[in-house]
Amino acid sequence: MDHAGPALEARGLTKDFDVGLRGRRLRALDNVNLRVEAGEVFGLLGANGSGKSTLLKIALGLLRASGGECAVLGRPAGVRAVRRSVGYLPESPAFFPHLTGREVVRYFAALSGCAGKAGAARADEVLAQVGLQAAADRAAGGYSKGMRQRLGLAQALVHDPDLLILDEPTAGVDVVGAAAIDALIAGLRARGKTIVLTSHTVTQIAALCDRVTVLERGRVTLSGEVKTLAAGNGRTWNWAAPNDAAAEQLARWLAERGWPAPTPADDRGRLEQILLAATQGERRDA
Ligand SMILES: Nc1ncnc2c1ncn2[C@@H]1O[C@H](COP(=O)(O)OP(=O)(O)OP(=O)(O)O)[C@@H](O)[C@H]1O
Predict the structure, then answer these.
(1) Which end of the chain has fewer CB atoms within 10 angstroms, the N or the C?
(2) Which of 18, 26, 217, 282 to mutate to test the pocket of ligand 1 (most atoms within 8 A of CB)?
């Protein structure tokens, strides 16, 4: 879908939920402004209950905003023409347990208008892309958490969307599986896709994202380029890599941009501290 301007834009976005019997309301999003440029990986960070999923659901047209505006690929969030160009990985993807992985992806391919031989070929392509070809004929009900996430990614990718919205893509996935998903996201970015992801993992945000916005109790507390936040006033920062693969990935990502290599960290890094400081308010679900 051709469009000019940002892939996702929220202006003064507010969402109230009715909670309780006495008309009590909970403000899940409070005047949120953000802009995701086409082709970037954008991270949304925030404690549980800070409003990340609510924002994504409004962008997807699954929830209606109480105030403000949300535009996706140049159109109001949720309009049909936009849905075709957006892929979504929900927080805990669930599938018909008796369908095989291949059947699940073919089903989603058909839903997006790609049925028959073309749908089958496209399903095989994305199953290979997420590394599930060997398990493709097993029932999805028996998949591990990491495999379910990868199957969720396959269904999000099957219609070749321009914008991918990934709600905690590596939640509950072991380090090897998470590194594979991170590599897949980096590969999608290299192919020009726009990716918006939520994460609780600061290292994932640092390794993958061009820009990050931090939400706290529905409000934006910090927003900026990872590069700028990390560099501070030209200072270097420390970063604790969860494993060698992640360290190499980050080093490559920095080198591609001509930024200094990270120094091995013996404690939490500067970027991590900055991001954590922005999420430090009282947790809503505490
Ligand atoms: N349908 C709903 N009805 C009432 N309250 C809701 C609803 N959906 C979300 N909320 C509330 O809105 C706030 C924001 O929730 P949201 O799921 O967007 O947070 P989140 O940042 O995605 O959290 P997590 O990291 O746990 O996924 C929370 O206090 C949550 O309880």
Answers:
(1) C
(2) 26
Residue 49 CB–ligand 1 contact under 6 Å? yes
Which residues on adjacent β-strands are paired with residue 32?
13
Q: Is 221 in the pocket of ligand 1 (CB under 6 A)?
A: no
Residue 41: strand pairing partners = 195
Q: Is 111 in the pocket of ligand 1 (CB under 6 A)?
A: no
51 pocket-lining for ligand 1 (C-beta < 6 Å): yes
Ligand 1 centre from 78 Cα, in Å?
19
Specify the residue with its C-alpha closest to ligand 1, atom 7.
Answer: 17
pLDDT tens-place string over residues 163-196:
999 999 988 788 888 888 888 999 999 999 999 9
| Amino acid identity, position 197 | L
The strand pairing partners of 219, in sequence order, are 216
- 280 band by pLDDT with thresholds 50, 70 and 90: low
Of 41, 36, 34, 37, the C-alpha closest to 13 is: 34
Report how far apart, in Å, the C-alpha atoms of 62 and of each of 53, 79, 81, 110 are: 11, 11, 15, 21
For residue 166, list its beta bridge partners: 89, 197
H-state helical runs in the chain = 52-60, 80-83, 101-111, 116-129, 145-157, 175-190, 202-208, 226-231, 244-256, 270-278
Dist CA 187 CA 251 (whole Å): 16
Q: Is 204 in the pocket of ligand 1 (CB under 6 A)?
A: no
How far, in Å, from the CA of 52 to the mean position of ligand 1?
8
Average confidence (pLDDT) over 24-35? 94
Distance 54 CA to ligand 1 centre (A): 6
